[in-house]
């Protein structure tokens, strides 16, 4: 049940072929780019992973392939976003069998559960597994907020609930969490456009999106701010912001996948009903990406700054 909840953990994209099958070779290229940049974990099956479109067998294949390829360098986590407690418990069991070292969990999907129901849902899944758990708190997109009182009940009852992916869009919540729980609950920011601010006021890490196209720049921001080299981190972050804003759009999957084509670490194929970008929208996003790449900064040496 050991997990170090810090650093950059990419919510990786799922790679598909033009025939809508898993592209495991491109998936490995994508994961290798993340490892080479120095990420601290890999999160499978999130929104960017198009989890809701994957079959159970595809999720198992991705978990096993990622675990095998990563080979213990960093922990591999599986996201749980299910409609029923029974299905969530089963997915946690399967993820553990397939080698995942941790779970990220959303509240129940589709049904707007009460606070009591959400707490009981998390408790049931946590008590079914020994894997450490990070709760994904994103009331903006998923309409259910996990409050501090709910977290209090959860972490008192379930020692494997250890972290929160903080995506409320309210950075003051980071200070509230720290004031209430100290180090009992690790915080990983989940909003790219608030990442540096969140890290500077106490977030322990960053579950990132644009890392899927620009892993080195993402990890550099984290490592530089951690080492106190704030000015350098800010300079990279300001360059990055037009790209980071692609993460806070309903079409974030298509936008980020297109960016990864430009950096040669991913393809843009998505699973229907999503469609590859077309027309004016494609031109608009392409311009944002190309403009950023044209002035892409030269990064300082950012690895091993804190050893």
From TrEMBL:
Pfam families found in the cross-reference section: DHDPS
Listed name of the protein: Dihydrodipicolinate synthase family protein
CDD domains membership: DHDPS-like (cd00408)
UniProt keyword annotation of Lyase present: yes
InterPro entries: Aldolase_TIM, DapA-like
Signal sequence range: none
Lyase recorded as keyword: yes
Keyword line: Lyase
Annotated family: Belongs to the DapA family.
UniProt source species: Flaviramulus multivorans
């Amino acid at each position: 049940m050991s997990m170090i909840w810090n650093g950059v953990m990419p919510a990786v994209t799922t790679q598909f072929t033009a025939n809508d099958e898993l592209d495991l070779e491109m998936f490995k290229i994508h994961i290798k780019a993340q490892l080479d940049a120095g990420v601290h974990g890999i999160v499978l099956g999130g929104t960017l992973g198009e989890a809701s479109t994957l079959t159970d067998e595809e999720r198992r294949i991705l978990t096993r392939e990622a675990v095998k390829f990563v080979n213990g360098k960093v922990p591999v986590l599986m996201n749980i976003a299910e409609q029923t407690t029974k299905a969530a418990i089963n997915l946690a069991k399967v993820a553990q069998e397939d080698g995942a070292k941790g779970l990220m969990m959303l509240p129940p999907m589709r049904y707007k559960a009460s606070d009591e129901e959400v707490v009981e849902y998390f408790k049931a899944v946590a008590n079914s597994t020994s894997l450490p758990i990070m709760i994904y708190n994103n009331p903006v997109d998923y309409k259910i907020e996990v409050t501090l009182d709910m977290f209090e009940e959860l972490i008192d009852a379930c020692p494997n609930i250890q972290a929160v992916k903080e995506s409320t869009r309210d950075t003051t919540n980071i200070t509230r969490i720290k004031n209430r729980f100290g180090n009992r609950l690790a915080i990983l920011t989940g909003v790219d456009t608030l990442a540096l601010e969140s890290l500077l006021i106490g977030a322990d890490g960053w579950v990132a999106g644009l890392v899927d196209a620009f892993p080195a720049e993402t990890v550099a921001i984290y490592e530089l701010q951690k080492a106190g080299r704030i000015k350098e981190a800010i300079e990279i972050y300001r360059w990055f912001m037009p790209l980071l804003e692609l993460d806070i759009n309903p079409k974030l999957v298509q936008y980020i996948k297109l960016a990864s084509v430009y950096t040669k670490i991913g393809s843009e194929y998505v699973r229907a009903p999503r469609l590859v970008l077309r027309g004016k929208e494609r031109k608009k996003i392409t311009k944002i990406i190309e403009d950023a790449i044209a002035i892409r900064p030269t990064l300082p040496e950012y690895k091993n700054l804190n050893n």
